Amino acid sequence: MTDFDKYNLTEESLFTLLSLSTQITQAFESIFDQEDILNSEFEISQFNYHHLLNDTIHDALASQIIIKAISFIDEWNNYFGVKTETKDQETILQIKSLTKPAYSALMAWKEMNSYRNQALAHNHRDKYQKNIYLQNKKFDAPQTDDELLLVAFCIHKMSQVTSLFFQDEIIKIINILEKIIQENKNKNKGRYEFNNKCIQKIKSIDKDITNSFIHYNFTNTLLDTLRKNNSNI
Prior knowledge:
Layout: H1 9-32, H2 55-78, H3 89-98, H4 100-107, H5 112-121, H6 145-165, H7 167-185, H8 188-232
């Protein structure tokens, strides 16, 4: 067994929850160019809106908050305390009891999964195969920036309480992760070789498409010329 395998089921679930929580927090803070909104008093004057923020980046980060929030909820409901270590069940039940207000706020949106599946992750079609945007379909899911704040805050608090109960386990996970990161850094040479392969593949694809397009244009031009000549005969 390697060092990377030396974690139990609870520690694995803790890492999943906290990594998703961190990504949600980073996405929300990136939207508002603000480092500590979730620990502030949420006064409007404290928000430092980034006037040059591209709408596309905003939408992408907002989408990631929803997608990762649903992943967090899935881990929370179906793994954390369900498929984790038996010895940790009582502690996890206590955590879930303490964080119930935050969890209940998240579950108040009844169509988060449908919104994720139909609007964010797949091809914008509902169960009837109709495009949701052409129908102007509305979802009971977080839509506005203040609702995204609520989502991010709830998950932040759930993770915060969880961390208080599992401090030693989290330190252990961080140490394992640092070893993995260091090992990946030591593989930089392979990464650059992979990049070179990608570049060569890109060039090959570009060349093939260009040649096909040239052949297509040449063939069509030739056919047009033949048609014109035939019409003049």
